[in-house]
From TrEMBL:
Full protein name: Phosphoesterase PA-phosphatase related
Phylogenetic placement of the source organism: Archaea, Methanobacteriati, Methanobacteriota, Stenosarchaea group, Halobacteria
Residue ranges of the TM segments: 23-50, 62-84, 119-138, 150-167, 173-193, 223-242, 303-321
Segments forming domain Phosphatidic acid phosphatase type 2/haloperoxidase: 62-190
This protein's UniProt keywords: Membrane, Transmembrane, Transmembrane helix
Keyword Thylakoid carried by entry: no
Length: 333
């Protein structure tokens, strides 16, 4: 399969970006944060917890489905990277060419952005960015118009993809593949979740196309979450078979996120109101601590799996917590 995409897959883009002004490269190094996994899942969680029915007919179902779709996208990325096992551009290895005019604090940040290890095809940032912003545009179908949402999603996703090429951690083909995979995975995840717009071809006659204002009431993210766990299991198998030990943790996190999402969703009804801030703040501290622990103890796959699963279950099940607390309070009184 590696013959389909080779290690020498550049088409001269490195020469072009080397000619860009340093200020432009620094700006794109900041843009790339828009598809950092921590940023995307934080953004998705905020939408899932706090979105109102002004954004979607069923905001909890919409938000959970978006999380599931992006989890599928990262699972597909992990499988693709392990399968092709292609290196990044030489510039990603270092040493970093840090602009002399950057303050010392920003110099460390910049160096962290332009140096990256692991495999390069497809781009995880391009895949995750395309999946996240397209999913948000499709599931929150009461915001703006369909055309405006899709245009905004495309612009952000393309900007992120371009940033990965500009800072020389990916080739152009890596990000193009990522954009295609991310977009395709979202449509597949929505189909599995029961989105009538996708299942009926998105036709204007059947459901108003992608501007349909009630489609999210039919969504069930269980199957997309389970698919993410299955694909991540495949990624883990390919990673182990190929001896790519550095990718094992990423595949494990994908399994835990998919399984945890499916379990967490079974604990909610899907029509809960927005999560009160008094509950969301301590929940954020707990889930954030679990995520940090998952990476701090990445040397132990078992600990990483347990911490990630617990964090995802907590995030997805949180909308049901206020009602359960109220029931318990009533029982005690």
């Amino acid at each position: 399969m590696t013959g389909l995409v080779t290690a020498e897959r550049g088409i001269g883009e490195v020469t072009l970006v080397d000619a860009l002004p340093e200020l432009v490269v620094v700006a794109f190094a900041a843009v790339t944060h828009l598809a950092d996994p921590w940023f995307l899942f934080g953004l998705l969680a905020v939408g899932y917890w706090f979105a109102s029915d002004r954004l979607a007919a069923s905001p909890r179902r919409a938000g959970a489905t978006a999380i599931a779709a992006v989890t599928c996208a990262y699972a597909a990325t992990a499988l693709g990277k392990a399968w092709f096992a292609l290196p990044r551009p030489p510039g990603a290895i270092g040493p970093a060419d840090v602009p002399a005019w950057l303050p010392s604090l920003l110099s460390a940040w910049y160096e962290a952005q332009v140096l990256s290890d692991g495999f390069g095809f497809p781009s995880g940032h391009a895949t995750g960015g395309a999946a996240a912003y397209l999913a948000l545009a499709l599931v929150y179908d009461r915001a703006w118009t369909g055309q405006r949402r899709l245009l905004a999603a495309v612009l952000v996703a393309v900007a992120v993809a371009a940033s990965r090429v500009v800072i020389e951690v990916h080739y152009l083909v890596d990000v193009l593949a990522g954009l295609a995979v991310g977009g395709g995975v979202v449509l597949g995840a929505l189909w599995l979740a029961g989105d009538p717009r996708v299942r009926r071809g998105g036709s204007a006659e059947s459901e108003g196309g992608f501007d349909s204002r009630g489609a999210t009431a039919a969504l069930d993210p269980t199957l997309p979450f389970l698919l993410a766990a299955v694909v991540s299991t495949g990624a883990l198998a390919v990673t182990v078979a190929g001896g790519h030990t550095g990718e094992v943790v990423e595949a494990g996190i994908g399994i835990a996120t998919g399984a945890g999402g499916a379990v967490g969703w079974r604990l909610v009804d899907g029509d809960e109101p927005a999560v009160p801030v008094r509950i969301a703040v301590p929940a954020l501290a707990v889930t954030g601590g679990l995520w940090v622990g998952a990476y701090v103890f990445a040397g132990s796959v078992a600990v990483t799996l347990a911490a990630t699963t617990a964090a995802v279950v907590a995030v997805v099940a949180l909308p049901a917590l206020p009602e359960r607390i109220e029931r318990m309070s009533g029982a005690w009184n």
